[in-house]
Write a structure and sequence with these properties.
22 helices; single chain; alpha+beta; six-stranded antiparallel sheet; Beta-Lactamase; Rhopdopsin 7-helix transmembrane proteins
Length: 691
């Protein structure tokens, strides 16, 4: 019907057709980046009609047939440039920023395709070359139509080269030179269209060379970000070829039948083949995950892990089998990400974290080039560039980012490898969640114990004391700070007329301070139950230091003031261990208070001596022991000591009230006042003959 005859001159175009078909089929059968696959398949598909129609035009002697064939084949040539532009922008990561260029090139190509097929402005006719074959005669749009190939390649190379690093620019420059040379060789066929020269078309040669380069890039490089073989695409391709062969056989068998009948039968055959292909596709077994047994052992081994560092070690060991080198495992906390190994931290942008939760899949740095990120692209790219890793795996559990793995894996993950990484990441995320919950529970339990002990200490210390211990009256007033520093006191009779008193200040908080204070108080009570003898204060100090060394290993030392008051001997022996000390006050007198202590090494310190001393104690004198919070409070409390009125039961309370007049105290306020009973003082004065 078309008066076709065999000619050896069509062989170059048939070879080019086969090369283009191989490039398109390989891109379709490789499971990889969708954008890159689409661009390569589109470029090969757009060039394929030109190669086929050029081969057929060589085999005809009918000028009208040649015009129709060449017009049909030249039309899609305007779409080759836009598809190659898509590939170049995908490689450089500029696709999302320059989508306008892709839309513009595609719209221009489609418009020129329609004009070529519908008018004679591109292919106005044909003429014979000296080789005897027909070639199309150019129209007013021919140069613009053919120039689309070179123009959009140049635009893509300029945009891509501007955004790449120096090493990538050198490689891209070599591609630019090769593309320019091939375009220059293929562009000589425009001279044939305008009748300048007239031997034989040469465009098949650069097209075949370009196909060889493209096939090398598909099979030997990471151009398509390959993940493995796409069995579904192969099944669909086989179904397409089978349907085409069946329809061809039916058309030959039904030669001469009505067109409507042939069309109906062919449509039914196509539907049957398509249904069989879909049914076979559904029956295909699911893709197996690489290293299923290793993955099962990994998941089973996470059940008894209570340390997130062990989770990272197991994950690194598992991924080492698929050539993934783990740089670090980061735990998500309120303040940002914390390295589970070193404790280093950095703050992750909240929008980037939200995007990672939505993405919830391994992220290769090279995949960013063709991913549709939207307005967050600059932040994600800046974060990836700052971290320096090539693979990021977010650990997401129940819609929450619990961790992040940074690793090195330059090549694209194959489908089986991607499944291994994804499933192990989900298991690791659950393990991290369990570890974090266990850590939070332990922290809450420790906090609850500290609060309970601190509350018990506060209640015990805040109760106002006005105790009578033999000839002594002891009054105390305590007021806790928002975060208590553990000020405490204890008093005990050491004989008929002796009173031992201990006042402590913990430098730590919570349970450690409570345990240390309780240990010192217990040692003090044990040491004062027996008669102290002549060396009473030294024995007490030795007992307290021994107890402190047993309890305060690695903890904060305790400040303490210790005194033994003897009513018969009228003396007070004291020891000061880093405490502000005490004051001997004579009520109603103009005498200044006498300071006792104020220095010395604290209990629990390895070096330094505890300050010791002794002083006379008159029957009407008071021993006032105040905490650091009182000394650092409002100075009005010292005026209370000089008041001419006789001290009463609320003397200690008045000291604390005056010290707290400046506002909320930063440290615990404690005042302990020791005085002799009034009847005891009167009896002693009568024995001395005083009125």
């Amino acid at each position: 019907m078309f008066d076709l005859r065999w000619s050896w001159l069509c062989v170059p175009f048939l070879a080019c057709t086969a090369a283009l078909a191989v490039v398109g089929v390989v891109a379709g059968l490789v499971r990889g980046d969708r954008v890159m696959r689409l661009g390569v398949i589109g470029a090969a598909t757009a060039a394929l009609p030109w190669a086929i129609c050029s081969a057929l035009s060589v085999c005809t002697n009918d000028a009208a047939v040649a015009v129709r064939l060449l017009r049909l084949g030249v039309g899609p040539v305007s779409l080759i440039g836009p598809n190659l532009l898509l590939v170049l922008l995908g490689i450089s990561g500029q696709l999302e920023r320059h989508r306008w260029a892709v839309w513009l090139s595609g719209g221009t190509g489609v418009a020129l395709l329609g004009l070529c097929w519908g008018t004679g402005w591109t292919v106005s006719g044909v003429h014979r070359l000296t080789s005897g074959v027909f070639y199309f005669t150019g129209g007013p749009l021919t140069d613009i139509h053919i120039a689309q190939l070179a123009v959009w390649i140049a635009v893509g190379l300029i945009i891509a080269r501007r955004s790449m690093m120096s090493g990538e620019r050198r490689a891209m420059l070599r591609v630019l030179i090769a593309a320019s040379v091939l375009a220059a060789i293929g562009g000589t066929d425009v001279l044939l269209a305008h009748g300048v020269i007239g031997v034989f078309p040469i465009a098949w040669l650069p097209a075949t060379i370009a196909c060889a380069i493209a096939l090398h890039l598909e099979l030997r490089t990471d151009l398509l970000r390959p993940r493995g073989f796409d069995g579904g695409a192969l099944l669909e391709l086989v179904g397409f070829l089978a349907a085409a062969a069946l329809i061809g056989a039916l058309a030959y068998a039904l030669h001469g039948a009505a067109v409507v009948a042939v069309t109906a039968i062919a449509s039914a055959a196509w539907m049957v083949v398509t249904a069989v292909v879909w049914w076979l596709g559904r029956r295909r077994p699911p893709r197996r995950v690489l290293g299923e047994r290793a993955l099962e052992r990994f998941i089973a081994g996470l059940t008894d892990i209570d340390d997130d560092r062990r989770v990272g070690d197991r994950l690194a060991a598992l991924w080492r089998d698929v050539a993934i080198a783990v740089h670090g495992l980061w735990r998500a906390e309120d303040a940002g990400l914390v390295d589970v190994a070193s404790g280093a931290s950095y703050e992750l942008d909240r929008d980037v974290a939200a995007w990672l939760i939505r993405h919830a899949a391994p992220l290769a740095a090279a995949d960013l080039a063709t991913m549709r990120l939207g307005p967050i692209r600059p932040r994600v790219e800046a974060w990836v560039a700052a971290r320096g890793a090539t693979l990021f795996v977010p650990l997401v559990d129940r819609g929450t980012l619990v961790g992040l793995v940074e690793a090195e894996h330059v090549a694209a993950l194959r489908e089986a490898e991607r499944g291994l990484v994804a499933q192990s990441a989900r298991a690791a995320a659950r393990a991290l969640t369990y570890v974090n919950l266990a850590r939070a529970a332990a922290r809450e339990g420790a906090t609850a114990r500290e609060v309970e002990v601190a509350e018990a200490m506060r209640r015990q210390a805040s109760a106002r004391h006005d105790d009578e211990l033999g000839p002594w009256l002891v009054a105390a007033e305590y007021r806790s700070a928002p975060r208590t520093t553990g000020a405490a006191w204890s008093a005990n009779l050491a004989g008929d007329a002796r009173l031992a008193i201990l006042v402590t200040e913990g430098q730590a908080h919570g349970v450690p301070a409570a345990l240390a204070t309780a240990a010192l108080t217990g040692a003090f009570a044990a040491a004062t139950t027996a008669s102290t003898g002549a060396g009473g204060i030294d024995e007490l100090i030795a007992a307290l230091r021994a107890s402190a060394q047993d309890v305060l290993r690695g903890g904060e030392p305790i400040a303490a003031f210790l005194a033994v008051l003897d009513a018969d001997a009228r003396t007070v022996a004291w020891g000061c261990a880093g405490h502000p000390g005490a004051l001997l006050v004579t009520p109603g007198a103009e005498l200044a208070p006498i300071a006792l202590g104020g220095k010395g090494a604290r209990l629990g310190e390895a070096r330094g001596e505890i300050e010791r001393g002794a002083a006379p104690l008159a029957p009407d004198q008071l021993l006032v022991v105040a905490s650091s919070g009182v000394y650092g409070g409002a100075p009005a409390w010292r005026g209370v000591l000089r008041e001419p009125v006789a001290p009463g039961a609320r003397f200690a309370a008045r000291i604390v009230d005056a010290a707290a007049a400046g506002g909320q105290p930063g440290e615990d306020l404690l005042a302990v006042v020791v005085r002799q009973r009034g009847d005891r003082r009167s009896a002693r004065l009568s024995d001395q003959g005083e009125p």
